[in-house]
Specification:
This protein is an alpha/beta fold. The protein contains 8 helices and 16 strands.
């Protein structure tokens, strides 16, 4: 099963980092967040990736073109003009990098990679969020209900601590509880190829008309995920994820 990852957006809300590189290349623990996302899928045996490039896509191309340089010890013999790679830390990945246009919307990017997907069920996600989601259970749920699309529904983490107030007395404090209890689109989709017919053009945003049409027709199911999920929308998010990685509490590191 193939995995499509959106990696072409501008990342304007984390411009402190994204003015130099695309958001999926911003690092957590010395590795780009897209690497963490791919490791999550690979943990469940999904190793065939189609990455939708756009803004500064060449940075992602160069990363994978020089993957061994990033991941291994290297000896350069200047006299012989040779390079020797030690301890080849290769992943079992097949990575297809597709330029889907710098200004293309999320739906348009998916439509542009249609030719690389064949006629089988595929996974689809954003290049800026991590989770401890059970991908195998997600796929099993999708196959069981038989609809065209499955979205992972998550409850976003709260941004601030919550006070438990009785009258005017504070009786407790909860550090960053879940949000208001609502479920939101957490990415980590499983889709049938026919969903691409719901995408009109480059300007189509996947989260608007395609998903709304699927929902109206009863073709969109939600897989409720109550575990860890966190996006990297802002610098604050990146710092939080970096701190969790350094402390050994990175819940999404399922491959440990």
């Amino acid at each position: 099963m193939k995995v499509v990852i959106l990696a072409g957006g501008l990342g304007t809300r984390i411009s402190e980092e994204s003015h130099l590189r695309p958001k999926p290349m911003i690092e957590i623990g010395g590795k780009p967040i897209i690497w963490h996302i791919m490791k999550i899928y690979s943990h469940f045996g999904l190793n065939d990736f189609v990455i939708c490039l756009g803004y500064k896509g060449y940075v992602i191309k160069e990363y994978f073109a020089n993957y061994f340089l990033h991941m291994s010890d290297v000896t350069f013999d200047m006299v012989e003009n040779r390079m020797h790679i030690h301890q080849r830390n290769a992943e079992p990945w097949r990575v297809t990098l597709v330029d889907t246009g710098e200004a293309t919307s999320t739906g348009g990017r998916l439509k542009r990679v249609r030719e690389y997907l064949g006629d089988e069920t595929f996974c689809f996600t954003y290049g800026d969020g991590v989770s401890d989601i059970d991908i195998s259970a997600l796929i099993a749920f999708h196959k069981q209900h038989g609809k065209l699309a499955t979205v992972t529904a998550v409850q976003p983490p709260g941004r601030y601590g919550a006070l438990d107030v009785q009258g005017q007395m504070v009786s407790g404090f909860q550090e960053k509880p879940l949000g208001d209890g609502g479920w939101i689109n957490g990415g980590f989709f499983v889709l049938e190829p026919d969903v691409i017919d719901y995408i009109e053009c480059d300007d189509t945003t996947w989260e608007f008309e395609p998903m709304r049409s699927l929902a109206r027709e009863g073709q969109l199911m939600s897989h409720l995920h109550r575990g860890f999920w966190h996006p990297m929308d802002t610098l604050r998010d990146r710092v939080l994820l970096e701190d969790r990685w350094k402390s050994g509490e990175a819940e999404w590191q399922l491959w440990r």
